Amino acid sequence: MLLAACGGSSSAAPAPPSFPCDIAAALSEHCGGCHGMEPALGVPFSFATLDDTRMETTLTRSGKAEPIWQAMREVLEDSKMPLDPKTGTVAALAEDNPDRQLILAWLRAGAPAAKDGAGCDLDGGT
Ligand code: HEC
């Protein structure tokens, strides 16, 4: 369960939940070419919007259905993604890569939406 923060803004229409913009930028750079709005050939799902990451997949360590954001955490921890777009082989980010650390910290926090709807989706394909 995610608890929404109790903000003071009461009258503004709620924006749809989206990624924090720094996360969207890092995901666009490292994953978006394949897992963007239109998943590339052979790619099982896209995660171009935060909603997408709430869909379930069985492509998990356990083989049990879990939200896509959990599978994203696993492939980063296990250095199984990203792939090299030219060769299709694993081109894992180094453990000290700042984007890897940024994305993993966000996933380990439960992949929370950007605050106050001030978020972003992945680039491309929109
Ligand atoms: C060059 C294309 C490409 C890039 C870039 C890429 N993926 Fe993938 N991804 C794939 C393909 C193809 C599959 C399915 C086949 C496989 O697992 O190798 C996949 C599968 C997955 C799966 C399902 C688990 C699994 O092992 O099949 C997850 C989760 C995932 N990718 C997350 C990511 C994340 C997170 C990034 C960025 C850090 C990323 N991918 C970057 C092509 C890509």
Structural class from helices and strands? mainly alpha
Low-confidence stretches: none
Q: Work out the count of structural domains.
A: 1
Q: Give the helix proportion (percent range).
A: 25-40%
- Strand content range: under 5%
The largest sheet, given as strand count, sense and whether it forms a barrel, is: 2 strands, antiparallel
Radius of gyration: 15 Å
Gross geometry: globular
Associated small molecules: heme C
Termini Cα gap: 30 Å
Strand adjacency order, main sheet: 1-2
Question: Mean of the pLDDT scores?
Answer: 90
Regarding quaternary structure, what we see is: single chain
List the helices and strands and how they pair.
Blueprint: H1 21-35, H2 50-53, E1 56-57, E2 66-67, H3 68-77, H4 98-108
Antiparallel strand pairs: 1-2
Helix pairs in contact: 1-4, 3-4
The structure holds heme C (HEC).
Describe this structure as you would to a colleague.
The protein is globular, with a radius of gyration of 15 Å. The chain has a two-stranded antiparallel sheet with strand order 1-2. The protein has 126 residues and is mainly alpha-helical. The chain binds heme C. The site of heme C has 19 residues, from helix 1 and helix 3.
Brief summary of the model shown:
With about 130 residues, the protein is mainly alpha-helical. Helix content is about 30%, strand content about 5%. It has helices at about 20-35, 50-55, 70-75, 100-110, and strands at about 55, 65.
Keywords:
mainly alpha; single chain; two-stranded antiparallel sheet; binds heme C; 32% helix; 4 helices; 126 residues
